[in-house]
Specification:
alpha/beta; Rossmann fold; five-stranded parallel sheet
Length: 368
């Protein structure tokens, strides 16, 4: 017993000494590493677009700065590379934020910021009057893999209460390599404890291990795989199984951050004009719906919502297949209806069915 007590005493003493020594090391490293390591939460104007921009390994594209011309429209980006005004953190008291992920469809580059469906929904629910804010975290041509990395870099840092995830044509567009082979994943298993992400020592260890572990992606970038994600005939950027993994990860991370998810089936012209959509779109919608059933995630069927309006396709979609203002307005109202209970303190989700993630058939080129 005396030997056990002595061993326990030494263990406790060693642990305490380790903590005492680690604190000054952490404090000393913080200012040094803040200069050497990138602060991923905000755009760095001095490096964006340059070969040494640290976000390129994770996003594949440079951060936008201030006003950008996209799709013929002027889009204002804030300090986090998201559309809209600066985002205050910590989040003001009695404020709830709805953050939307996606690509051109969600960004709404050819529209004013107030015409985008996410902002339409927030305004219909009361907007600033009831403490609701909309954060548009969509980027042009962003896939689910890029959106997941952006969430780890900046999305969770803006403290969203609700994350809206739409299905996204960028996922089944073609690339030289799949995005998860070309980009270094920002997510690490230790990040399930968010408090660690602010530690200088943790950041140094994580980035070193991450780059070593994902050397294949870095080598492909360096050998011309395409930091700007130049697209060519080849493979879909995010396969159905990779997409399922992203959705599962977003659900897990939302739970870590006490946020809820909502999925949106984004309408395409075929939903309205022809009564059918390409098989590949149906495959990705199936992945989304399966994930929703497992976890009890609300799905807003935007395709059905617009079809029920019985409007001509030409009033809802432009020649490029993107939603016109009327299409965004109707989709935003459908999202607002689904969120009424949440704004009054309820949950948007239900109890999920559980179960494991199935293996999905990957899309074929002839299905695109």
């Amino acid at each position: 017993m005396r030997a056990i007590g002595s061993t326990l005493f030494r263990t406790v003493l060693g642990t305490l000494l380790g903590v005492v020594l680690l604190v000054p090391v952490e404090l000393a490293m913080q200012p040094v590493l803040d200069r050497l390591l990138p602060n991923m939460e905000r755009v760095n104007p001095s490096t964006t677009g340059s070969p040494d921009d640290p976000v390129l390994s994770y996003l594949g594209v440079a951060d936008p700065i201030a006003e950008q011309t996209i799709g013929g429209g002027a889009v204002q980006f804030n300090e986090r590379g998201m559309r809209g005004p600066p985002i205050l953190t910590p989040k003001p008291a009695r404020t709830r934020r709805i953050l939307a992920l996606g690509s051109q469809e969600t960004l709404g580059a050819s529209l004013s910021a107030n015409e985008v469906y996410g902002q339409v929904a927030v305004d219909a629910l009361g907007g600033a009057r009831v403490g609701l804010e909309f954060v548009n975290a969509a980027r042009p041509d962003f896939s689910a893999v890029q959106s997941l990395n952006l969430m780890e870099m900046r999305g969770w840092a803006v403290e969203p209460d609700l994350v809206v995830v739409g299905d996204n044509a960028a996922n089944w567009s073609l690339g030289t390599f799949p995005d998860d082979d070309l980009l270094v994943p920002m997510l690490g298993p230790q990040l399930s404890a968010p408090v660690l992400s602010g530690s200088a020592l943790y950041r140094a260890i994580y980035m070193t291990i991450g780059r070593w572990r994902d050397g294949r992606a870095v080598r492909r970038q360096q050998s011309g795989g395409g930091l700007d994600l130049v697209r060519a005939e080849g493979q879909v950027r995010v396969g159905t199984n990779a997409y399922a993994h992203v959705l599962e990860t977003l659900q897990s991370r939302a739970s870590d951050h006490r946020a809820e998810l909502v999925f949106v089936i984004f309408p395409v012209p075929g939903d309205i004009a022809y009564g059918h959509v390409p098989r590949v779109i149906g495959q990705y919608r199936t992945v989304m719906q399966d994930t929703a059933r497992r976890h009890g995630i609300l799905v807003v069927d935007g395709a059905r919502a617009l079809a029920d309006e019985e409007r001509p396709s030409s009033e809802l979609f432009g020649d490029d297949g993107q939603l016109r203002p009327l299409g965004h307005r109707l989709l935003g109202k459908a999202l607002a209806r689904a969120l009424r209970g949440w704004t009054r303190g309820g949950r948007v989700g239900t109890t999920g069915e559980g179960g494991s993630v199935p293996t999905y058939t990957e899309p074929k080129l002839e299905d695109l």
